[in-house]
Amino acid sequence: MTRTVYYTATTLDGFLADPDDSLAWLMRQDLDEEGPQNYGAFIAGIGALVMGSTTYEWVLDHLGATGEAWSYAQPTWVMTTRELAVPEGADVRFARGDVRDLQAELAAAAGDLDVWVVGGGDLAGQYADAGLLDEVIVSIAPVVLGAGRPLLPRRLDLRLEETSRNGAFVTARYSIDGVLLEDRT
Ligand SMILES: NC(=O)c1ccc[n+]([C@@H]2O[C@H](COP(=O)([O-])OP(=O)(O)OC[C@H]3O[C@@H](n4cnc5c(N)ncnc54)[C@H](OP(=O)(O)O)[C@@H]3O)[C@@H](O)[C@H]2O)c1
């Protein structure tokens, strides 16, 4: 069955990017590309992606720097209220509003594989709010930034399923309890 998985790198203090959307703190870390929780093994199990527009624009800017056309073979949905460009040959689709309205389409596109919520944190939170988020998989870099784009700005209970080390990162996989903390207090 298709799972919806938030897979990302984060700082130790829970930021996806610095306040200027820079990932320089991430790019300089030691990483074993064949090691635990590696991207290659993860993306092989993904049938569809969904991301927020800031993340999409970061990917587009980054592609410009590396000369790549587009990073993903899978259909990718970008949540936005704006009209944004699509790189040549990329299967990028746009959606807005309640993430529940998109879920049947995403799951159909994913087939037997999983859906990757790429980020940002609030979008992952929208999936959690809707009860649609199954797993959070994080690679925690040995960096604190003090401020930036939050990992998952919600109050949630998670269940730790697995931990490992990859290079400089602590990696952890959590399942979602499915109950907002507010519901319990
Ligand atoms: N560390 C990592 O591995 C990692 C992973 C992912 C992202 N990142 C970085 O983290 C930062 C994330 O930024 P972020 O948290 O600000 O945002 P984001 O989720 O990438 O983008 C937020 C924007 O997406 C649009 N959006 C989100 N939900 C929507 C909805 N339901 N309907 C319509 N539009 C919606 C809105 O913009 P508009 O409507 O104005 O378009 C919103 O301002 C970026 O710098 C990204 O590059 C890092």
From TrEMBL:
SUPFAM superfamilies: Dihydrofolate reductase-like. One of its GO terms (biological process) is riboflavin biosynthetic process. This is Dihydrofolate reductase. It comes from the Bacteria. Residues 8-155 form the Bacterial bifunctional deaminase-reductase C-terminal domain. InterPro entries: DHFR-like_dom_sf, RibDG_C, Riboflavin_Biosynth_HTPR. GO terms for molecular function: 5-amino-6-(5-phosphoribosylamino)uracil reductase activity. It comes from Nocardioides caeni.
